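Progress against Task 2.4 (sequence-to-structure conversion) is shown through the following example record, which the project officer requested during the mid-term review.
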Amino acid sequence: MIQELIERLLTEAAEEANKKGFCDKATADATQKRTYSSDKVEGLNAKMAKLAALSDKLGEELSTLSKEIQELNTAQATAKKERGEEKTENANTVNEAKAGLAAVKMAIDILDKFYKTSAKAKVDLSLAQKGPMDDAPDAGFDNGEAYQGAGAESGGIIGMMEVIASDFERTMSETKSAEAQAAKDHLDFMTESGKSLAEKNMASKEKTSLKDETDTNYNDAEDSMAAQSKILVTSIEELIELKATCIDTGMSYADRVAMREQEIASLKKALCILGAYAEFGPDGLADAC
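Structure tokens generated for the chain above:
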């Protein structure tokens, strides 16, 4: 019976040793898994924070670019509309001035011819009989003098017409000059704004691509975070179960091994004593065991 007890204890020791090996390996695996997944979760958390910050920053920059692009498009559309209206207005002004100048020149030519012709005209009164009209009041010209109008007066009608013609010519010159400058200013504005618009559109395209990539990376990191968090929870649960099975047993493995070895040693000694007593009797017990 004692031998059976010893064998049972040895079997238990072997089983417990196997269990100890299992517990050590399982605990080491679970601990390693917990440490790895914990480190991964920490790294992913930091990565996601950076990606989220970058995505927010890119979103703000894209919003600003969108507003600036819209403002540039509006400014260009307004400039084109105003330039077209200004060009039409200047063209009308020049055409009206041309027409006015042509009319004034025609009038000057007509009047000039009239005054030159009338200046040479004379009335022959040598054959006319003297009558009551000889005593008529002064009419501003002598009897027999041809009508010459106001052409000879200083600052007369032709002089006034020439001033008007000069005004038309100045209007045409100034309007053409203003039109040329306005066209140049418009071209400069459209060139600069077009360049700025192209740069902003390119920047918007690049930032949109970068934001899409950032958001994709964030989603991938989020999926990895979920997977690693699940592994972390599982490893912690395994360690809790292993603790209950392998550690929280009321006595440490080393203490149980020591107690069992003492028990086996005591049983073996008892078995030895019984065997010696059976073989040698009471006198043989002293040196037998």
